[in-house]
Specification:
This protein has 3 domains: 129 residues, Alpha-helical ferredoxin (Fumarate Reductase Iron-sulfur Protein, Chain B, domain 2, Orthogonal Bundle), CATH 1.10.1060; 163 residues, FAD/NAD(P)-binding domain (3-Layer(bba) Sandwich); 155 residues, FAD/NAD(P)-binding domain (3-Layer(bba) Sandwich), CATH 3.50.50. Helix content is 35%, strand content 16%. The strands form 4 sheets. Strands 3-2-1-4-16 form a 5-stranded parallel beta sheet. Strand 1, helix 10 and strand 2 form a beta-alpha-beta unit.
Length: 470
């Protein structure tokens, strides 16, 4: 018998089981432990099954959220998995790192008078159940005879490849690194997104016929014109991200012990530097580490530092907590794990010792002024408020920008003043048959927005390949 809306409203949101803070701060195992089946069923029964499904409109890849949640409530996990996987080729990833609180969940009717349905937690539960309990049910469509190259195996590239494979196109992904996954592998720590989850979802794409060639740098190994003219690809999707780190340009950045967040996290996440003695990749460890930034990458960097033994691991951010772009859950976890946060201050110089190693970071206190172009109040330095934070490692996590290697070797490819690729409403670039999406178009953004770009581009590419038009 179906539950009445009034009965559903009485059910409290089910919390996510977690490792205890003092335990998890000393290991790289996943913090969130996932729902058990009874908990997932209880949470799914909180859904009011709205007819208009506003939550779907908040999802960049258009998952049919009400129906997959209803299937969970009914205990039909096979059906739930079918619904989820029809729209999302990386559900185990998005169930862990997608900011549902600002996307589907913020649209939830229940959010108006309480807490929304935990869509992300249910998505993770269904994805993990499907991975562990059933074989991939994909039935290959008739081949179209068309070849597509995808540049980059991050979230946009993987999504686009999966959607094109569903339509019968022969897809080859070219990945610059030695392992597929892009930012999912090098940028997000094991304690948030275990590598085995990414590897499993990449393997699913391989089973669906997607080829992946690693150690191929487009712009060097091949150029875009060579892929189309010499290698015979009918269309190309560029999703090589925006991984060139930005530095503040302050004195002392050339000292030993200064990292970009990209390098630091790549050494730890992709190359296993946290397994000291088991891998050959080194990473400088400090008893005191300072990270500058307020986004998810900064949180990843400072929480990783804590796990590598930093005491304290300190975050410096020039605005207040309310302006932090990082997910609320990540900030909460960082604080629980003992991360020190110096808010409303900003580094102005990295200080070194006589041997050229970092010994401290000089900061200045800030106050919030008028809003800037981002809509957030602009931080203004307070004269005479400088102070030092002792540290041996300083990590800059203030953003990334486009790497020009690919764009500079592609004649006729239009980019904007920041070096990001320009596209039309269908995702096509200035070159016919060449599409683009993700961070190389948007600038640094979220995993799910990149996936949305990949899905949109795949539909446009299919139309182009089928009809020869946009």
């Amino acid at each position: 018998m179906a539950m009445k809306p009034s009965e559903r409203m009485k059910i409290a949101r089910q919390g996510m089981p977690e490792q205890e803070p003092d335990v998890r701060a000393a290991n790289f195992k996943e913090v969130n432990l996932g729902y058990e089946a009874p908990t997932a069923c209880t949470e799914a029964n909180r859904c009011l099954q709205c007819k208009d499904g506003q939550c779907i409109k908040g999802c960049p890849v258009g998952v049919d959220i009400p129906n997959f949640v209803a299937a969970v409530a009914d205990g039909d996990l096979c059906k739930a998995a079918d619904i989820l996987l029809a729209d999302n080729v990386l559900p185990g990833v998005t169930g862990r790192v997608c900011p549902q609180e600002t996307q589907c969940e913020v649209k939830c009717v229940r959010a108006k008078k309480g807490t929304p349905v935990a869509v992300g937690y249910l998505e993770r539960f269904v994805a993990d159940w499907a991975r562990e309990n059933r074989q991939d049910l994909f039935e290959p469509p008739p081949p179209t005879g068309k070849k597509v190259a995808v540049v980059g195996s991050g979230p946009a590239g993987l999504t686009c490849a999966g959607e094109l494979a569903k339509r019968g196109h022969a897809v080859t992904i070219f990945e610059a690194l030695h392992t597929p996954g892009g930012v999912l592998m090098y940028g997000i720590p094991e304690f948030r997104l275990p590598n085995l989850i990414v590897e499993a979802e990449v393997e699913t794409l391989r089973k669906r016929g997607v080829k992946i060639e690693c150690d191929v740098v487009i712009g060097q190994t091949y150029t875009i014109p060579e892929l189309m003219d010499d290698e015979g690809f009918d269309a190309v999707f560029i999703a090589n991200g925006a991984g060139l780190p930005i530095f503040q340009g302050i004195p002392g950045e050339n000292l030993k012990g200064v990292y970009s967040a990209n390098e630091f996290l790549t050494r730890v996440n992709l190359m296993g530097a946290y397994r000291f003695g088991e891998t050959d990749t080194p990473v400088v460890r400090g008893s005191q580490i300072v990270v500058v930034g307020g986004g998810n990458t900064a949180m990843d960097g400072v929480r990783t530092s804590k796990r590598l033994g930093a005491d304290p691991a300190t975050l410096v951010y020039r605005r207040s907590r309310e302006e932090m772009p990082a997910r609320v859950e990540e900030v909460k976890h960082a604080e629980e794990e003992g991360v020190i946060m110096h808010l409303l201050c900003n580094p102005v110089e990295v200080l070194g010792d006589d041997d050229g190693w970092v010994r401290a970071v000089k900061c200045i206190k800030m106050e919030l002024g008028e809003p800037d172009d981002s809509g957030r109040r602009r931080p203004v330095p307070i004269k005479g408020s400088e102070f030092e934070i002792p540290c041996q490692v300083f990590i800059e996590a203030i953003g990334t920008r486009a790497n020009p290697l690919l764009t500079q070797t592609t004649p006729g490819l239009k980019v904007n003043k920041w070096g990001y690729i320009e596209i039309d409403e269908k995702g096509m670039t200035s070159i016919p048959g060449v599409f683009a999406g993700g961070d190389i178009v948007r600038g640094a953004a979220t995993v799910i927005l990149a996936m949305g770009d990949g899905k949109t581009a795949a539909a446009s590419m299919h139309e182009y390949l089928t009809n020869g038009t946009k």
